[in-house]
Structures are given as C-alpha cells and as structure tokens.
Amino acid sequence: MTGQGGIVHIGGYTAQSGGRADGIVAAHRDPATGALTPLGTVAVTPSPSFLARHPSRPVLYAVNELTEGQVSAWQVGSDGALDALGSFSTGGADPCHLAVLPDGGHLVAANYSSGSVAVFPLDAQGVPGERSDLVVHEGHGVDPERQERAHAHMVSPGRDREPLLAVDLGTDSVYRYDLDGASGRLVPRGPRMRTAPGTGPRHLARHPDGRRCYLVGELDGTVTAYELTEDGSLHQRGRVDASGRTGHIQPSEVAVDPDGRFLYVANRGVGTIAVFDLAGELPALVSEVDTGGEWPRHFALIGDHLYVADERADMVRVFRRDPSTGVPAPVGEPVPLASPTCVLP
To answer: What is the pLDDT of residue 3?
Structure first.
C-alpha cells in the first residue's frame, strides 16, 4: 500500500441489508494531511460490503452481500467514476469478502451463509467470466448459534507457491488451496487447519516475510500467530487477546504494516484499534486507541495514515500513524458516510 494521494473507494451496507448506504462512494485523499473529501456515490449497487482492485488494470470489484450473492465489476475512471462491467452470481448466499490473485487471472469470493468459495476467471481487461469453480465447506463448530454450519469469511491468495487460504468462521478452520490456472479450479493442499474450538476465525493477515500470519477470532476475541511453511502448512506459535479492554470484544479486520513491524486489529464492541509489536515470538500489545465509535468493521493502512470504517456510527475516521511507535492518533473530524464497511485505497 503506497502513500499516494488520489481516490479511495468505500463500500457499505444498503437497505437490502438494513444499512443506509446507496452503493460505492468515492473520496479524494490528501496524501499530506490524510484528509478524505467524499465525492458522492459513484455506483448504485446493493450492499457492496467488500471491495478489491485488479493488480494491473483499472478495475474495481465488489461483493453484493445478498441472499442470492453476486460479484460486480466496474471500470475505474481517473476521477474515481465507475463504469459497470457486469454482475455475476457467486452461487451462494451473503458473499462477504473477495480478492484477486496476484497475477490478475482470477477472482475468488467467500459466501458467508453458504460456507463456500467461488472462483471467476478474469480476461486480459480484468472482466470476470462465468464462474469456474464453487467449493462448499462442510461441518460445524461448538457455538450452536454462530457455528451451526460452515461460514466462509475470507479468501487470502498467496504469492508464488504460497497457498490460497480460505478462513471459515463456522467450522473453526482455515482451508488451503492451490488454484489451477488452466481450469480455474481450486485444488486442496492437504487437510484443513483447525483452530481452537469456538475461535470463530474471521480474517487473517500475512506478514511481508511470507512466513508469518495472524488470524483473528471473531467469537473468542483472540489473535493466533502461525508459521506458514514452504509446503503450505500452518503451525501455531501461540495466541494472545485481541484487546486489553473488558467487555464484548469482536475483532473484525487485521493487518500488518508494510514494514512488518506492527500488527493492527479492529475490535468491535469496545471500539478500538489495538497495536501489537511483532519483534518477539508472539504479538505484544503496545497500545489500544479509541476509534470514536463502537463498531469498527474495517480499516485500511495507506501511507502514514489509517482509515477506520465504523459501520454503526456512519463514519470513517482518519488517523496518522507514528512511524517509530506505530501508534495511530486521530486527525481532524470524522468523515460522515452511511453504513461504511470497507475502505479501499
């Protein structure tokens, strides 16, 4: 993630999901101050709750988190305008995450309510074609309300020979796949990796060194550290609390800064961003900063700044990160935006 200015896109929940957004909003970012200036809704589309960009083409993708899930694609203009390229069925319900493989050849999406992962080939211009695979996870966890079945929550493509990791909240598992580029199908790489029962894994962040990754548990409020070996295995190094606060703690987003020194975790319920130092064997909590709302669903690290989308407070909050300590401090006033769920640099 670079420190450039320019356009940021923000996804959110629309009325179809009980939200107040109209679709995808574009905002101008000042690289010096970090300030966001909303430019208005640039794509009216139902519940674009997570966004992704093509690595080399000016194309933006969103999940439409609906009972009959879709992914949608747009050509991005220089001013952040979006020109529709089409919408495609994910083959499942409530897709909540998507990602483009590093080579730009395929798009993968996680269907939360159906517990499945969909694959779409992308042509040379980044436009999706018909779905090439749909892998359905089976099983359940120990929580009868939240883990009654599989709930795929995130797809994390790897670089080079690293596996694609699919995080499943419902089965307390991380599934490992290789994507066969010719057929567009997912090939399991060994058995799934199981977390501690009741973890409810939501999102994971890979370290820039390619060896470490960190998984947040939505249900038990933890961060689990793993070593990713060359054969694609995940070895647990240990677990720490996602927050130093007390109360209802439900981690959402997690990210490692580009230098690999700090880990950031958004904690819903207590409304914080927790900052961990990564110099030791396990993440060490160094600070926990109030976001000004209680439900920070997502954040993005862009240059020296951190942008927090608080879904229930209808705002994006801008923070500047201290380069030596990694600790963010709020800058200016919150930016009012309806039901924001994703900030995409």
So the answer is: 38
Structure tokens belonging to residue 108: 């993968």
**For the chain, domain boundaries:** 50-194
User: Whole-structure pTM over 0.85, yes or no?
Assistant: yes
Residue 159 has pLDDT above 70, yes or no: yes
Query: Is the CATH number of domain 50-194 1.20.1420.30?
Result: no
Distance CA 263, CA 319 (A): 15
HSE-CB at 237 with a 13 A cutoff on CA atoms is: 17
Confidence of residue 1 (pLDDT cuts 50, 70, 90): very low
DSSP category for residue 219 = T
As a whole-number percent, the residues of the chain with pLDDT over 70 amount to: 99
Candidates 227, 238, 235; CA nearest to 283 is 238
Beta bridge partners of 44: 23
Write out the two tokens for 19: 């939200």
Residue 184 forms beta bridges with which residues?
A: none
* Torsional sign, CA 98, 101, 105, 111: negative
